[in-house]
Amino acid sequence: MSKLLKKEFLLSMHPITPLMLVLSAMVMIPNYPYAVMFFYMTLAVFFTCMMGRENQDVIYTMTLPVAKKDIVKARISFVVILEMLQMFLMVPFSILRQNVNPMGNEAGMDANMALIAEGFLLFGIFNLMFFHSYYKNVDKIGVSFVKATVVFFVLVVVDVVATHAVPFVRDCLDTPDPQYLGYKMIALVVCIILYLIMTVGVCRMSIKNFEKQDL
Q1: pTM summary value
Q2: How far is 144 from 14, CA to CA, in rounded Å?
Q3: Does the structure show a pLDDT above 80 at 102?
Q4: In CA terms, which of 35, 101, 120, 156 is 20 to 30 Å from 187?
């Protein structure tokens, strides 16, 4: 498993992925829908899978002495590591954003703990939608990505609207840290739990889907 994960980073990862991680600094942009920032990481996942299809990465990996389930586990673990890296990188930029420009974000959730919670939720939903479809047919990457992206951007729109129209979100969650820290911590814990449930769940479903494929 560790060798497969090493292959994901050294051979399978699309070259644009490190740039997508750097885009965690987008929280420094004034009045920007920061939830869009998470989309760029999902784009890196899509490019990695697409490059793998063109390079016959799945076929090559299956010639190795590894089980099909380990191929799925390695890819999803690779994606989870990237998502966690983006979360960690976003924290110092969010702190810097609030110190340099303490004014709120008029285009969605502020750069705070609630945004991190939202990121976990968005990533969890993307993982669920994308991998559940992708491992039914690893050649139809575009279809899987479109399905996941439509749901993703519907949620981004909900985020922007909620920060203006939903009193609890507007008055408690969309505020500078450490205001209403208790509510934000609850939101963060809930979203992390949902992220784990969705990601672990789709990993199990993806293994079953992938093992049914005749490759």
Answers
A1: 0.94
A2: 18
A3: no
A4: 101
